[in-house]
Amino acid sequence: MAKVRRLSLFALLVTTLFVLAPATIVFAQEAAAEGDATADTTTEGETPPAEGDAETLPAAPTDEEGEAGSVQDYFAKGGPVMYPLLLTSVLAGAYIIERLFTFQFAKIDARKFTDRIVELVKAGKRGEAIEECKKTRGPIAAVFKAVLERADRGVAAAEKAAANSGAVELAFLERGLIVLASASTIAPILGFLGTVTGMIRAFEGIARAGEVKPTVVASGISEALITTATGLAIAFPVLIMYNYFTSRIDRFVLEMEESTTELIDAIEDTQA
């Protein structure tokens, strides 16, 4: 099980870097776009347009340009609240991928493994059973190993070892779930905070202009809607994955309890 823990930590690091990479690219594209916009402004010494000349309208962006700039544009329009939302999504995404990897790696055929260990115990080959547990990944093998190593001290000691080892393995399986639970709660709250800040910007624009115009309140309302939508878009899949992981852990616990009970019964029979 220690190998699973090391691999899960490695997976968490890799997935965090993997999730951060697209965000870094977006920021780089946004900075490049701002630099291009600055370069296109009127430089010192340029001849201003003659009075009466028709004003030249900027060319409408093509569909490809609109699609390319959509991510950074939405991020910029969302205002400062988009940064904690991005951090929330990165952390949640990293832990989701790490938990998926860990659960998949820890999954074994519990029925087949239990039958194999029980058979060895009944045959009096406890040492071979312990070696089999060491070679097998997953929480069930870790609990079995703890039980078998204390089986010679009696059934009561084996049951206590099963309880202690089971608590450790359960804590490992539940690691990171608090992050997902927090992300599914915090993301909508941050979205609603962006709604408030966006409406504040909209009303400040009205106060400065002295009248209500769509162009005055558009940026504030856009910020409010973008942050709300982003918060909900983050919370929805995170909550689904949290419930999925909880159900997987419940199945792991049930398998551990049933298998451990069967193993302790076999130990008790051999000591009778």
Describe this structure in words.
The protein has 272 residues and is mostly helical. It has a domain at 1-20 and 80-181 and 234-272. The protein is 81% helix and 0% strand. The protein is built from ten helices and no strands. The protein is rod-shaped, with a radius of gyration of 30 Å.
Provide a concise account of the structure shown.
This protein is an all-alpha fold and about 270 residues long. The protein contains ten helices and no strands.
Q: So what's the overall shape?
A: rod-shaped
Strand content: under 5%
Q: What is the helical fraction, as a range of percent?
A: over 70%
- Indicate the radius of gyration in whole angstroms: 30 Å
| Total count of strands | 0
Distance between the termini: 31 Å
As residue ranges, the low-confidence spans are 10-29, 37-61, 64-68
Helix run count: 10
| Coarse structural class | mainly alpha
Mean pLDDT: 78
Largest sheet: none
Q: Element order, helices and strands?
A: HHHHHHHHHH
